[in-house]
Amino acid sequence: MTSSSSTSDDNEEKAKQIAQSMKADVAALSELLSKETLDESGEASIEELLARLENADGVAKGVENKLDALLGNLDSLLDALETTAETEPAQAAEKKQKPDEA
Predict the structure, then answer these.
(1) Is 88 a domain residue?
(2) Measuring CA to CA, which residue among 50, 52, 56, 48 is closest to residue 25?
(3) If you count Cβ atoms within 10 Å of the first and of the last residue's Cβ in the chain, which end, N or C, has fewer?
(4) Low-confidence ranges of the chain (pLDDT < 50)
(5) How far apart are CA 43 and CA 54, in angstroms?
């Protein structure tokens, strides 16, 4: 396995892990925002709403960080692919110029 192939596999695995984690975070965020807790008078508690908003903000920041990491992995993957694309034609040209040594 070549270095760029290994890097590609590593980046794909990281991307899958981030995507799975983000799905869980988005589900948690949806749950936090959809809960309706009412106090004894039938009105939502301001403290509860603020706590839920703070939790939702924390989850959203986590998702943002994961998206940043995913974009970083995609950049690394593109760099690896570009390097491979640049070196393969040069290697193929060298093979055509040299006679096969078997």
Answers:
(1) no
(2) 56
(3) C
(4) 1, 102
(5) 19
